Amino acid sequence: MRYGIHVQNSGDFGDAAVLARLARDAEMAGWDGFFIWDHILFEVQQPTPVVDPWVALTAVAMSTERVLLGPLVTPLARRRPWKLARETVSLDRLSGGRLVLGVGLGDRVEEDFATFDEVVDARLRAAKLDESLEILVGLWSGEQFTYSGEHYRLATSVFLPTSAQSPRIPIWVGGEWPNKRPFRRAAGWDGVFPSKEGVALDEMMTPDDLKEIVTYVKANRSRSEPFDVVIGGYTPGDDPDRASHIVAAYREVGVTWWLEGINSLRGPIGDMHVRIRQGPPNA
After folding, report:
1. b/e for 187-223, b at 16 or more Cβ within 10 A?
2. Quick one: average pLDDT of 215-222?
3. CATH code of 209's domain
4. DSSP bridge pairs for 35
5. Mean pLDDT calculated for residue range 75-97
6. How many domains does the chain have?
7. Whole-angstrom Cα Rg for the chain
8. What average pLDDT does the segment 98-103 reach?
9. Residue 160 included in any domain
């Protein structure tokens, strides 16, 4: 099992310099990854600072040497896939091949979609997500690529350079269980980042939940390449035995990445910085 940080990109964390410092300290403390949320507008009634994830991840890449990094998750339906292709390859090369692209439909639909007259219908956003993934992989190839879909059309073009990673940048797919479609989608890519309907952000899915999800994804997976099962959760940094006990139960059901939740619901930024410096649990 590998261990990462999953941090919000708003409020006290909505500053690229702050996130870069947290990422540097996370790397020094032994964490394996640093992943951030992707929101444009976090609150409508109570405005709060929000940082662009790609600017923040660039700062993270420049402040670290080892940790994997990426957005978790980016809602592809509100991003132009060709622009995202440029951003991802640029960041992957800058970081020396450390980018992981987390994708999904996205949440906070009123704030991030409706406010800007973006598509809010889940079926349409899912269709745009699938088309965007096809376009990303086609443009990442560095070969001639043409696309004609229901939502996007591209004339023949060649995008260079290619990513630092080969054959491409890894893709983790988010989804809310028990909705099955996102998990069938995830089975075709490199990893899954599940949440569960009714489980609040400051709560955790159970190992039994994860076991059910892992079984379903494996049953729908036709590829033999390694596949990551990524779960977000909370462990006490001041109680290593308790932390190890918590993550061990998830490792036993097939989880490969534990992402420690770092957000304002858990505590003030000072306390979160302390948790990062305490390092990952050891299962």
Report:
1. bebbbbbbbbeeeeeeebbebebbbbbbebbeeebee
2. 95
3. 3.20.20.30
4. 6, 70
5. 97
6. 1
7. 18
8. 98
9. no
Residue whose entry in the numeric block shows the structure tokens 């109680």: 239
CA distances 252 to 89, 141, 176, 208, 210, Å, are: 34, 36, 21, 10, 10
Of the candidates 126, 253, 130, 259, which has an alpha carbon nearest to the alpha carbon of residue 188? 130
**Does pTM top 0.90 for this prediction?**
yes
Give the tens place of pLDDT for each residue, 169-181.
999 999 999 999 9
Distance of alpha carbon 56 from alpha carbon 20, whole angstroms: 7
Domain that holds residue 267: 2-138+170-278
CA dihedral defined by 75, 76, 80, 81, rounded to 10 degrees? 140
Picking from 78, 84, 79, 81, the residue whose alpha carbon sits closest to that of residue 113 is 78
- 150 phi and psi, to 5 degrees? -75, -35
Cβ proximity of 270 and 253 under 8 Å:
no
- Reduced to 3 states (helix: H, G, I; strand: E, B; else coil), residue 34 is strand
Residue 246 in any domain: the answer is yes
